Structures are given as C-alpha cells and as structure tokens.
Amino acid sequence: xxxxxxxxxxxxxxxxxxxxxxxxxxxxxxxxxxxxxxxxxxxxxxxxxxxxxxxxxxxxxxxxxxxxxxxxxxxxxxxxxxxxxxxxxxxxxxxxxxxxxxxxxxxxxxxxxxxxxxxxxxxxxxxxxxxxxxxxxxxxxxxxxxxxxxxxxxxxxxxxxxxxxxxxxxxxxxxxxxxxxxxxxxxxxxxxxxxxxxxxxxxxxxxxxxxxxxxxxxxxxxxxxxxxxxxxxxxxxxxxxxxxxxxxxxxxxxxxxxxxxxxxxxxxxxxxxxxxxxxxxxxxxxxxxxxxxxxxxxxxxxxxxxxxxxxxxxxxxxxxxxxxxxxxxxxxxxxxxxxxxxxxxxxxxxxxxxxxxxxxxxxxxxxxxxxxxxxxxxxxxxxxxxxxxxxxxxxxxxxxxxxxxxxxxxxxxxxxxxxxxxxxxxxxxxxxxxxxxxxxxxxxxxxxxxxxxxxxxxxxxx
Length: 462
Fold this sequence. Notes:
The chain is an alpha/beta fold and 462 residues long. The protein has helices at 80-86, 106-119, 133-143, 158-168, 193-210, 231-235, 334-347, 373-385, 411-420, 447-460; strands at 8-14, 20-21, 37-44, 95-100, 124-128, 150-154, 172-176, 213-218, 238-244, 250-258, 266-272, 275-278, 297-304, 307-319, 327-330, 355-361, 393-395, 398-399, 405-406, 425-428, 440-443. It is built from ten helices and 21 strands.
C-alpha cells in the first residue's frame, strides 16, 4: 500500500510521442525530436496523484437546460466567407487559431477582419510581433483598411501585450503571430514549444476572463502541421487552416476544430494586390470557359466539407516518344489516377499502356474526393478517343477495381448544385434518387458502359 506521506516527484513527457522520462532532456530519447520534453503534473513515487483531496466547489452545478445559450452568441466579422467557417462569427471570450504557410495572406485577412470589426462600431487591437507599425500602416493603406477604431502595437513581449489590451479595452484582439510572442516567466527560446504553450495559455486566460474575442496567427511546419505541440490546438476554441497556392489567387479557409459550430466548412477567397475578397460562388473558378467542347475534359461536383463545388478535369493522351510512358498529374492524386488508368485498360479494353497521360484540374483546385473518379475516367476516355463529352453533363461516382461505379455521399447536394449552374445531364451510378426535375439522369453501372457511351457520342454526336 502507498504511504500517505509518499514523496512527490516530477515527470517529463514528450509532446510528440508521449514518452515519459525521469528528468528533463533536450532531445526525446524515444522519437529523437528536439525541444518537445516538458514537465507534467507531479505524481507520487508509487504512481498516485500527490495530495489529491476533495474541496468545496466555488459554484454549484446547475442543470444543463437552465444554462442561457445566448452566452455563446456569434458576432459577425463582416466577412461572409469567414463567418461561414466560424459558424456565424466570433464568440466573445473565444480563441481562434489561424494557421497557414508564410505569404498565403493570413495577415491581410486578419487586418481586413479588424477593419470590418471597427467599421461596425467596435474596437479592435492588432498586435504584431513580426512587422513594424510602419509596415502594417502601408498594407492598411494599400488594402483600404485604415480606421480610427483599429489600434496597432508592434510588440513581442507577452506582458506588454497584455498591458496594451488593458489600456485599449478592445472587443477583438489579433495576435500576429503567437510564435513571435515570448514571456520571461518560462524558459526556452522564442517560438519554442515551452514558450508557445505558455503564451497561448496566457492569452487564452485573458480572453476567458475579459470576454475578448482573440484571433491568433500560427505558423506551420514544412509538413503543413501547426508549429508547436499538438496540445496547442486543444488550448484554443477554433482552429482554421488557411490554404492556397502562390501561383493562383485562390485561397481557402478550412475549419479543423470549432467548439461553436460545424468543423467541416470551407470559405473561398481571392487574394489581390489591393487586398482579399470573398468568393461567394467559387464554382466558376474551377471551370475552363471555352466557346466549343474540347476532347479530354469532364465536369464533376465535389464536396469540400459541406460545400458542393463544380470542378473540371482535363486529360491529354498522346503517343509516347520514350520507352516508358509518362504519367503526370496536377491537382489530382497520382495513385488514384494510376488506378483509374489500370481499370480503363483492364475492364474497358482502352489501350493506354503505350501512351503518355497528363491529368490536371482547372483554377488550382485539388480533387481528393472519390466522387471525381467517374469524371476522371470520362476525361481520359474522351482524350484517348478524341471525342468531346457533352458540355452540359456532370459525372459523379466512384470507380472500383472491378470496374463498377459506386454511389457517393451527398449526391443530392451535388446534383442540386449542378442543376443550379445550368447542367442538364448527370452521369451517376444506379440507384440515385431525388434528382432535380431539370436534370436528366443517365445511370452508368460499370466502366465499360462509360466507354460505350463515349463511342456512341463519337458515332452520332450525342
């Protein structure tokens, strides 16, 4: 039995692999990661929690039905696409973490948020540890985000930043970024695991006690994960990922965690020299506008979170000049494309083994939804046979290794979006019901039927 006076000792745990060490080390002996070992709660020498005893609660527990839901009311930011992802806006006392690659437009978006917030008669404070006040002023003038109720402070010390919050008394605080903030109360370098966790904890406590909505900018690693420990995501209420390719103006804000709404919403934006703007109907960005149909193209409807988006797949099939045929993809998973090529050759008898195949999407769109398999197969078959597909048709379905076409989730929303944009024909797997009246449904049971349809179009033109 454990003795009542067992001496307590500390433990040190790695935030990456959760390995427990008896003393602090700079590098985890298990996974080899540097700077991830931190002290955890003290435990007794025999494994029990030291000195744990029941205490009288400061406030009594109340029935769930008696709690006022108005305490989590959303306040719109004024940016519709961002409010869509947040579930209606920001909640007072909440902490939102916005992470993304350098240069993707995080600071531009949040400066626009502060401007819209101030334009609604509320006060905002922008704390920057990365740029000087003059640099932010230049961006504000370029994007038209100057306002007397937007206060600015270039500060990287946590205590001074908290002093700015008390002095300004804002209802919204933007911290750009949490990795540049530091505190003297804990050890570690700026941006390290210990510092980032301490800064985020302090800012979260400030938001909860004062009722201020806090927006934090977070850096990401080369793998796309939020820099710092995974526990950083558990400290905040909302986690958003800001994604985009520098080669295109398209930007997407994707919800990862949301305690006040759905966590699978997506917001679309376009980044320009003069700022960032919402794209309320992004389907037009993912389609190539041309006066006449072209062989090797097919249109699908993908679901990004809950949002249906129209996307166009393009395929170019050409004779190979080398001994090994080339396979190149852009915006399409290469392993998925290789599977579709194999199914077309084996199950439909389409000779592709000696041809180069190039596959791409339009507008920087990335297709990872299996529902785009049928469109991908249609584009490849159309390109190989040099037969344009019907311009007002969409292809929705997953292709199996046996060549069968399977149904996908959210088909009703996909078909409704296709009908709204003027499409008249939908190529879908058997058994799909609930299609809009304006859509003609053509059921395709397997990949061989698809090829027969392409051949029929080649012979009679429709």
